[in-house]
Amino acid sequence: MLGQFSTAVVGLTLVQSAYTAEIIRGGFLGVDHGQYEAAAALGLPAWRRTLRIILPQALRTILPSGFNEIISLAKGTAMVYVLAMPELFYTIQMIYNRTQEVIPLLMVGAAWYLAITSVLSAIQYLVERAWRAASAARR
């Protein structure tokens, strides 16, 4: 049998891989079929067509959804820790039973999640802005 940690990792991996596959699939389906035909007409090998022509256009739709999925994963791991790994929750209970201060512990936990999601959102914003600038420069 799998332990609690292994079960949590397998569960998150299966769920996130399905969502990520759909995001990537949607990104490639969002590229106009004429782009594929034009790239093939240039006589480029398939790997170069994908890397130089199709992928940059697909990334325009993949990046925002992909970063949102990463942020969602960061939030989802919090639920896994509470639901699948009671030892963490038990440790928190031990600390606030000793100190009798529940609110500061909850505030610290909330601050950590706010910091993590804020950093991920800032990275997403910077990547999208750089991608937009590079895309505009190519036109």
From TrEMBL:
Gene Ontology terms describing biological process: amino acid transport; transmembrane transport
UniProt cross-references to InterPro entries, sorted A to Z: ArtM/GltK/GlnP/TcyL/YhdX-like (IPR043429), MetI-like (IPR000515), MetI-like_sf (IPR035906)
Subcellular location: Cell inner membrane; Cell membrane
Pfam family, one: BPD_transp_1
Transmembrane portions of the chain: 70-90, 102-127
ABC transmembrane type-1 domain: residues covered: 1-124
Source taxon at top rank: Bacteria
Keyword terms of this UniProt record: Amino-acid transport, Cell inner membrane, Cell membrane, Membrane, Transmembrane, Transmembrane helix, Transport
Residues spanning the signal sequence: none
Membrane topology per record: Multi-pass membrane protein
Secreted listed as a keyword: no
CDD domains: TM_PBP2 (cd06261)
GO CC term (a single one): plasma membrane
Family: Belongs to the binding-protein-dependent transport system permease family.
Official protein name in the record: Amino acid ABC transporter permease
Organism: Klebsiella pneumoniae
